[in-house]
Design goal:
Strand order of the largest sheet: 2-1-3
Helix content: 55-70%
Structural class: mainly alpha
Shape: elongated
Number of domains: 2
Bound molecules: zinc ion
Number of helices: 7
Length: 199
Amino acid sequence: MEDFKTEYEKVTLERECVAEKINALSQDEKIKEYFSLCKLNEELANKQKDLYKSMKVSEYSSCNHIWVTILHDSDSAEGRSYNYHGCIKCGLNEMPFYLMEWCRTPDELKLDDRIMYDLLKNQLSLKGTNTYLFCDLKLAKAIYSKIKEAHPDISDETAVKYLRVALYFMRNVKVTDERKVNRAKRLSLNPNYFINGKF
Ligand SMILES: [Zn+2]
């Protein structure tokens, strides 16, 4: 008991000394500036986040989407697989709905996923063109941007035809690994993209 009392008084005294030092430092101009900059930084970060959100919502809302069905994202531990839609033009996709299975609230989603989740949860149907193509979104986006680069004024309908043909050749015409690597590089994908895994 006596030991606790002595220790308690010692700590109380120590805290008073520390509080005095904190108080003295808080009057220092440099330290005042530090705290005011931290506050400003936080305000700017919030503003930046809000603007990023507005920017993405505006980009997704103004896109005349072209949807592909993404092959699947399997959860190997439980042997489950999913099919979901994604837009090859703006990247909007339904993946966040599946990510929600591991979250208690949407607040746990990453910012980009949260924006897509909030936007899609209020939509009863997907606006735009459904291609009914099963394809990896990264690959479909890469092919679409190459098509757009070569034909900037191409219509969505024709772009989908080109995409369909490109996928057909990639999947059905046998080429050497070297050509697969070059193709992946041209599409800015991982060099082994067409060698490993399904596409
Ligand atoms: Zn889109």
